[in-house]
Amino acid sequence: MAPSAWVATASSIAETASSGLSAGSIYSHFSSKAELFRHVAAELLEDRATSIGDAARTAGRMVTPREIFLNYASKLPIMNVPQVLLQVWAEVLNDPDLRQLMAGNLALLEQHLTELLLPWGEAKYGEEAPQRVAVEIEALLTTAQGIIVRSALLPSADVGALHQRLAPRFDAE
Fold this sequence. Notes:
Layout: H1 3-9, H2 13-17, H3 23-27, H4 33-59, H5 65-75, H6 81-94, H7 96-125, H8 129-153, H9 159-166
Helix pairs in contact: 4-7, 5-8, 5-9, 6-7, 6-8, 7-8
């Protein structure tokens, strides 16, 4: 498959993980691991943020931390996504280009989450909204990272039940 065909068909990290190709085969369709990572991460982040925001706007309501948690977290255990993410994170530790991309993608994710949660935070906390939303985002990201690790290390764990048990922690006070 030509690189442009691969880019056109790799619409999500789940698709990449479930493609049946080896890591080496996947990498061969991109000029570098950084290019592969950039493509998959950017598409995944944009898709999740857009779908959550669109759903809330259509329903005429604000997005809550719980909704973000359930929406993002419920997508993580699909196929081999946790295993792929752990492999990427391991590469990030040894590759300065990937580390820079990871930092950029994390900043992009935080920006998306801030845009989604700020209306909720302003309604709930007024002037304290930026600080309170930042804390919610830290909690969301840290919890999601823990779920990714747990899912990768314990693939037989009932991650859906874990999501349901943890979701109340993201209910508004």
